[in-house]
Amino acid sequence: MPFIQSNAEREERELQALMNSDLEVKKHIAEFDEEYEFRKKLVEARKEAGFTQKEIGLLAGLDYRAISRAETNADISPNLRTLIKYVNAIGYKLEVVKRGEDCSA
Prior knowledge:
Layout: H1 8-21, H2 23-49, H3 53-60, H4 64-72, H5 80-89
C-alpha cells in the first residue's frame, strides 16, 4: 500500500466545517468529550487514593479487567453497579448534580 501524505490543516478545516454544519456530529463529540473527562477523573481519583487497578478490583469485588475497562475502553461502558463499587472503593460517591451547580460540596 503506498504512503499517502496527509494535509493536517486541510483535514482540520474539513472537520471544523463538518462540525459546524452537523448538529448530530456536535452532539456525539460532546458526549464523547464528557465520557473521556469522566474516565480521566476516575483514573486521577484512583491514583490520588494510591491504588492500582488490581487493588481497586479487590476492594470493590470486581475483576481488575472491569476496572481497566471502566477507565479506558470507550467502546464498553461500565454498568452502574460497577461504577458505584469502583467509586466507593476509592473513597468517593456518585451523585447526580444539576448542570452549573458546584459539585465540590
